[in-house]
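User: tokens in, sequence out, please.
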């Protein structure tokens, strides 16, 4: 494996040869994929090529100066061209990376407890999280208008607790978190692209409906929800109940359809059962018909859940069309021209290309759903996701082969039509990535403005690419230049486990405030407290003992001082610190940490934040500013005096 590029001639028909040197993991995963059934559409019968060379020898880094495409190096003091929004996987967070430098610029706590900011411990965040301190973020997408990003919101799922969070791009802070009703394993999400309309969310796990102890032993009665959430209000509007589990999600550019891949149309509950059928589906949801059913009351209620549910289990209906695709598809991505939904095969080495403007005829019963599939190029073993360059090419991440496959959409359609073998090979290049790539995305790829500059391969295994840091390896997010005819690997980016997906957004579309604008809904809460207590939030430093016995400490900060040098409370008091930062200059954050009380939170310029705790044993406890704000930062402190 000394070349990044393989001979496309040899890759037309995906082979089951496994050629990673010493890559036991790759062999293992290939065997896993082959287990329990033939790969649909694959003419491969061979087992992994043996024997593999004993030692892994990583490919050489890209030769310096050989790269004639886009410039990946961003010099000190220079800014990146793109915001990269990365999900944070089991960390429960979202991260902002600069692209192409791959520098991590920010971590946004979402479903996790963050010690640096106090997220999960402050009053507002605690209420949003409802007592949960962990999450599993997979898919991060921004709000749209007119087919491109409008720079207002970032949406992200929590697979662990079936939630959807929204981050305001004004401050890059979470402003809403909602539960997905009647759902487990909320996985694929995607906002509508013609405007900030619905955000669609897929439940990956089929569960009894109602899940209250009934139907537990009868999986045939399980179902999964496709949920429409209003992206503006973050209210659940309606749900569609289907029989198969729902994986990745997509939307078209017109607002007509949403999509979900279904890898378990068998309705199995074990791995073997889920892999049983040779065919699964791309589910297509007809949004107007669903809205009509909701308006006309043709819905059911599930248990105590107040939301209208369209029961679309069973055969195709005006609500759901099931387009047959080879078994166990995974990613679904819509091309920037809005014409095609690419359905990656996962256990089939193919990508099924669904022509979106044929779907109306299929819904009308004029053509069979399968007739909407206009190409099915063989791209490699374990295709998962597809990105686009806006120039008619697609880039599919190939998990088992550990490659990115570049293919031409028009050529693939032509080849599928003719079937004479004389058409040009749609596969243009296969580039080794390191290793086992999951998601991929390209700059502006999920918009009509895909610009064909950068591609990210989010590799699940880093193995030998970094210094050994113990059993837990980082992820390896690789940057690939796609501005030329050939993909070129230009950078390895280590990330803390485990970002699943990312989107890459032109920097001109994102305009956060550098000073807290105090427009977030949480400020109305602080103002209501202050009003009730006769306090001016931005000026006053007061201790208010409330009728219910709780103590509110209203305090200000201005470098290097707190507005209060000390305050006194009693042992066992419920104490709420409401801290307002009077500093109104860029990058001047303070915080509030109380010794021995597990209290530590951030308050940015012009911000207010609050946290509630119980006063401990009598004594003196220093509170201090944990953020380096001033030459006298260490002196920025005071005493909490606790009396008995
Ligand atoms: Cu304020 Cu350090």
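Assistant: Sequence out:
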């Amino acid at each position: 494996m000394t070349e990044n590029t393989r001979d496309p001639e040899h890759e037309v028909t995906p082979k089951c040869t496994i050629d990673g040197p010493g890559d036991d993991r790759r062999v293992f995963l290939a065997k896993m994929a082959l287990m329990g059934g033939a790969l649909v559409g694959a003419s491969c019968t061979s087992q992994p090529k043996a024997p593999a060379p004993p030692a892994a020898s990583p490919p050489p880094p890209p030769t310096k100066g050989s790269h004639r495409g886009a410039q990946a190096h961003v010099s000190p003091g220079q800014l990146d061209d793109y915001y990269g929004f990365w999900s944070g996987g089991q960390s429960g967070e979202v991260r902002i990376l600069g692209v192409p430098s791959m520098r991590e610029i920010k971590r946004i706590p979402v479903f996790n407890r963050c010690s640096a900011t106090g997220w999960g411990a402050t009053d507002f965040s605690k209420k949003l999280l409802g007592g949960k301190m962990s999450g599993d973020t997979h898919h991060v997408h921004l709000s749209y208008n007119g087919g491109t990003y409008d720079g207002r919101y970032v949406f992200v799922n929590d697979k662990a607790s079936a939630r959807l969070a929204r981050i305001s791009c004004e401050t890059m802070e979470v402003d809403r978190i909602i539960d997905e009703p009647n759902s487990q394993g909320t996985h694929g999400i995607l906002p509508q692209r013609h405007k900030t309309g619905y955000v669609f969310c897929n439940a990956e796990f089929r569960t009894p409906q109602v899940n209250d102890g009934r139907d537990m032993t009868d999986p045939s009665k399980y179902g999964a929800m496709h949920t429409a959430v209003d992206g503006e209000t973050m209210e659940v509007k309606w749900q569609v109940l289907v029989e198969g589990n729902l994986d990745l999600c997509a939307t078209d550019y017109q607002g007509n359809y949403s999509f979900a891949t279904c890898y378990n149309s068998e309705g199995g509950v074990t791995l073997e059962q889920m892999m049983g059928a040779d065919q699964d589906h791309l589910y297509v949801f007809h949004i107007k018909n669903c809205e009509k059913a909701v308006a006309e009351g043709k819905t059911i209620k599930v248990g105590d859940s107040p939301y209208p549910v369209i029961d679309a289990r069973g055969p195709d209906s005006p609500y759901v069309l099931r387009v047959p695709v080879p078994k166990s598809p995974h990613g679904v991505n819509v091309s920037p021209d809005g014409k095609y939904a690419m359905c990656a095969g996962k256990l089939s080495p193919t990508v099924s290309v669904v022509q979106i403007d044929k779907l109306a005829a299929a819904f009308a019963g004029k053509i069979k759903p399968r007739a909407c599939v206009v190409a099915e190029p063989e791209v490699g073993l374990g295709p998962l996701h597809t990105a686009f360059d806006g120039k008619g090419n697609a880039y599919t991440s190939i998990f088992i082969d550990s490659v990115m496959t570049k293919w031409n959409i028009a050529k693939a359609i032509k080849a599928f039509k003719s079937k004479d073998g004389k058409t040009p090979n749609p596969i243009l290049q296969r580039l080794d990535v390191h290793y086992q790539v999951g998601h991929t995305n390209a700059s502006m790829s999920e918009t009509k403005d895909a610009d064909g500059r950068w591609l990210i391969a989010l590799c699940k295994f880093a193995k030998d690419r970094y210094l050994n840091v113990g059993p837990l390896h980082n992820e390896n997010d690789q940057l690939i230049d796609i501005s030329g005819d050939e993909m070129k690997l230009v950078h390895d980016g280590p990330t803390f486990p485990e970002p699943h997906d990312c989107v890459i957004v032109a920097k001109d579309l994102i305009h956060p405030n550098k000073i807290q604008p105090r427009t977030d809904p949480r400020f109305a809460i602080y103002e209501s407290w202050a009003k009730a207590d006769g306090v001016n939030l931005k000026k006053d430093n007061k201790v208010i003992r409330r009728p219910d016995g709780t103590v509110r400490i209203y305090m200000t900060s201005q470098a290097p001082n707190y507005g209060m040098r000390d305050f006194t409370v009693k042992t066992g008091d419920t104490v709420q610190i409401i801290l307002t930062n009077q500093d109104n200059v860029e990058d001047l954050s303070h915080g509030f940490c109380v010794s021995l009380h597990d209290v530590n939170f951030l308050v940015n310029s012009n911000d207010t934040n609050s946290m509630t705790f119980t006063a401990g044993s009598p004594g003196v406890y220093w509170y201090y500013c944990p953020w380096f704000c001033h030459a006298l930062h260490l002196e920025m402190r005071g005493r909490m005096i606790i009396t008995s």
